[in-house]
Specification:
Distance between the termini: 38 Å
Order of helices and strands: EEEEEEEEEEEEEEEE
Number of helices: 0
CATH topology of the largest domain: Immunoglobulin-like
Strand content: 35-45%
Largest sheet: 5 strands, antiparallel
Helix content: under 10%
CATH class of the largest domain: Mainly Beta
Strand order of the largest sheet: 5-6-3-8-9
CATH architecture of the largest domain: Sandwich
Radius of gyration: 19 Å
Shape: globular
Structural class: mainly beta
Number of domains: 2
Number of strands: 16
């Protein structure tokens, strides 16, 4: 893999007016990051892209190929996958993203996003109007990276992240993805968010053990696609009331796996591929959705049932 250099590009906006979207990339600090190390939570793209709730069951955002722990200074390639099924599909669909890596201890950016000449990405510094995020950097699409006209239902971006040169402790990855209808307006689009956490392999206290995330988190604990059973791991940083539900791509509830209050920790929950009546569900794509109450977070994982 050929390494590139980070290019800091100016932000180009669409026509003025709050009703307009940002086809060249959103302004910085729109990943929906939770409050970290005294820094406030970031706004979500749904503040501008109105009309649909964040993390609608019709889609999901995933950060793939992250290691179990990062090695200082190593360059990693991770995939950001945005899946969304439009019903009906728009005439000119567009997709975009914004992602960042943040140190748990300081709330500042961790590592470096590496952009090569072949990438349709840009790295944005925080604007002067956002001093609370002054030490954060955001990677996002450019006008050439929106996959214009691509039918979907899934698009991917290959991103290159170079880990910090030393042990920076736990790192959070916050990402937002936009499945837009292409009308250059901010209404009617779909916003999805993702949160992942990554410890340092060189940590002396827990070199390979994963720390609890800042917010409830849902990960897969078994192979996907699956035939008979799939398992999920639910990570809870504190006492939390959560629900874990299975939906089909039409947004219909298939099965409730959990609606309860849990103590802090990691829990394994299973789905046997059957609906609430015990009938085997049809083969296809389903969405597992985790919802928290104390931490108002929604996370979605796409699963594929085979028969």
């Amino acid at each position: 893999m050929r390494r590139g250099i980070v290019r800091v590009l100016p932000l180009l906006l669409a026509a003025a007016g709050v009703a307009q979207a940002y086809p060249f990339g959103p302004p910085p600090s729109k990943t929906g990051a939770v409050a970290v190390a005294g820094r406030p939570a970031e706004p979500r793209c749904t503040d501008c892209h109105t009309g649909n709730p964040a993390n609608d069951p019709s889609g999901s955002l995933e950060l793939l190929d992250l290691p179990s722990a990062y090695e200082p200074g190593r360059l990693y390639t991770v995939r950001l996958r945005l899946t969304h099924v439009w019903d009906p599909p728009p005439i000119e669909p567009r997709w975009g993203f914004q992602v960042q890596a943040v140190r748990k201890e300081t709330g500042d950016s961790a590592g470096v996003w590496v952009v090569s000449a072949a990438d349709s990405y840009q790295v944005l510094p925080t604007s002067a109007q956002l001093p609370q995020f002054a030490r954060r950097r955001y990677l996002e699409h450019t006008i050439d990276g929106i996959h214009a006209g691509q039918p979907g239902p899934a698009v991917e971006w290959a991103l290159h992240w170079q880990a910090p040169p030393g042990d920076s402790g736990l790192v959070y990855f916050f990402a937002a993805g936009n499945s837009a209808n292409g009308d250059n307006r901010s209404s009617g689009d779909y916003i999805f968010t993702e949160v992942e956490s990554l410890p340092c392999a060189a940590s002396t206290d827990a070199p390979r053990a994963r720390s609890l995330p800042a917010v409830p988190e849902l990960t897969l604990a078994s192979a996907n696609p699956f035939r008979d059973e799939v398992s999920f791991r639910v990570w809870l940083p504190g006492t939390e009331e959560v629900s874990l539900e299975i939906f089909d791509l039409q947004g219909r509830l298939v099965r409730v796996l959990a609606r309860a209050r849990y103590e802090p920790g990691a829990y394994i929950l299973y789905w046997n591929g059957r609906n609430a009546g015990g009938v085997r569900a049809a083969a296809g794509i389903y969405l597992a959705r985790l919802t928290g109450v104390e931490h108002p977070v929604i996370q979605v994982r796409r699963i594929i049932l085979l028969r």
